[in-house]
Write a structure and sequence with these properties.
Elements lengths: L4 E6 L6 H13 L8 E6 L5 H7 L4 E5 L16 H6 L4 E4 L2 H6 L4 H13 L3 E6 L3 H5 L3 H13 L8 E5 L13 H18 L2 H6 L2 E4 L7 H5 L6 E4 L7 H7 L1 H6 L1
Parallel strand pairs: 1-2, 1-8, 2-3, 3-4, 4-5, 5-6, 6-7, 7-8
Helix pairs in contact: 5-7, 7-8
Bound molecules: 1,3-dihydroxyacetonephosphate.
Length: 254
């Protein structure tokens, strides 16, 4: 088992090359727990990926924010999984709710993307999460289970997947899920894995939370049994990201 705490920083579509230099300098100077305790991955926009990868301390890895659903070729504007592998980028974020909502990525399309990225040797941070409407209608578990199933249907191993539960209503809103709300869905997803995949996958797959995670709420969230880390948006561009990485200590001492 031993699910190592995982902290991802999703920079989304933000930053100039000057901003990127500053963020990297902050990350390089910060005191963070050892890689035995926490796995840290930051995800800059494509154009900064190689710069960040080469300037960042080796304990922090990089992820792309997306990649194409199959082998590269005549797909203008896309970046393929093979290219990321070629550049030594180990991780990719797939199925983020912003892409699902704004670019119409369906559950099936996300499942195909995850399968292709894994087949090329990338590790995947796969995102699921319900909208406010869906939560209010009481369909949260149904929604995240369907999103997870669409991925499960296409892959044969969860070894290189981290599942990020990101309730859409909590993203960029400052409205964080309460620790109990997060724990409830994480436990539900773990049960879904147990019932539909295996007890082993349920016990070993990291399920991380994303949605308005900050330096002030991260410890309490990290204290929840089934919260194995975070996917951080806005706060990952700020020095408080270091404090969020340190929330891994809560788990260590638990
Ligand atoms: O979408 C997110 C991470 O992928 C969360 O974004 P915020 O932390 O800005 O709410």
């Amino acid at each position: 088992m031993g699910r190592k705490f995982f902290v991802g920083g999703n920079w989304k579509c933000n930053g100039t090359s000057e901003d990127v230099k500053k963020i990297v300098a902050t990350l390089n100077a910060g005191q963070i727990p050892s890689t035995d305790v926490v796995e840290v991955v930051v995800s800059p926009p494509y154009v900064f990926l190689t710069q960040v990868k080469s300037e960042l301390r080796p304990e922090i890895q990089v992820a792309a924010q997306n990649c194409w659903v199959k082998k590269g070729g005549a797909f203008t504007g896309e970046v393929s999984a093979e290219m990321l592998v070629n550049l030594g980028v180990p991780w990719v974020i797939l199925g983020h709710s912003e892409r699902r909502a704004l670019l119409n990525e369906t559950n099936e399309f996300v499942g195909d993307k995850v399968a292709y990225a894994l087949s090329q040797g990338l590790k995947v941070i796969a995102c699921v999460g319900e909208t406010l409407e869906q939560r209010e209608a009481g369909t949260t578990m149904e929604v995240v289970a369907a999103q997870t199933k669409a991925i499960a249907d296409k892959i044969s191993s969860w070894d290189n997947v981290v599942l990020a539960y990101e309730p859409v209503w909590a993203i960029g809103t400052g409205k964080v899920a309460s620790p109990a709300q997060a724990q409830e869905v994480h436990a539900g997803l773990r049960k879904w894995f147990c019932d539909n995949i295996s007890a082993d996958v349920s016990a070993s797959t990291r399920i991380i939370y994303g949605g308005s995670v900050s330096g002030s709420n991260c410890k309490e969230l990290a204290g929840q049994t089934d919260v194995d880390g975070f996917l951080v948006g806005g706060a990952s561009l700020k020095p408080e990201f270091i404090d969020i990485i340190k929330a891994a200590e809560v788990k260590k001492s638990a």
